[in-house]
Amino acid sequence: MVVPKYKTVMEENKQNVLVKEGEYQLEEDCVLDRPIKISEFVCNILHMEELAEEYIYVIGLDTRLKPVGVSEIGHGSVDACLSSMRSIMMRLLLMGACKYVLVHNHPSGDATPSRADILMTKTAVRAGELMDIPLVDHIVIGDKVYAAIGDIVKGRNRKTAEVREFGDTGI
At what angle do helices 85-95 and 115-131 cross, to 10 degrees? Predict the structure, then answer.
């Protein structure tokens, strides 16, 4: 399965368009249905655990949770990165996504979600509900660890994000 990497550009008429800037070759059965699978996916293709500054990516998914596209949303400093829901939703609509995942890294290596991370996730859940493109999860990548914020924000099961090591499925 080939998954495109997209960026947006502005045409002369000031319209935003999605442009394919690369692609990733994946196994045909790549389904991003659990935090560990999402974490391994972004570390394998984007090497997020190695990045020196914060990056935020959106992964568009089809109805079966297979990736349809990947796009960088923001690139920041060692401890912050700005993004907007407008940019996220625009990319998802242009790539034809039915659902989505947000992923960003913490260069410090600590995957514990910040207040800003939780607030962004709450906003992403609301935006997804309004646009009928639900957020599946928001994953924070650290040094060989990850944390899933989505279930906390959606009120499922936990009160705080558990930071897990890669290979720890939590089952």
Answer: 40
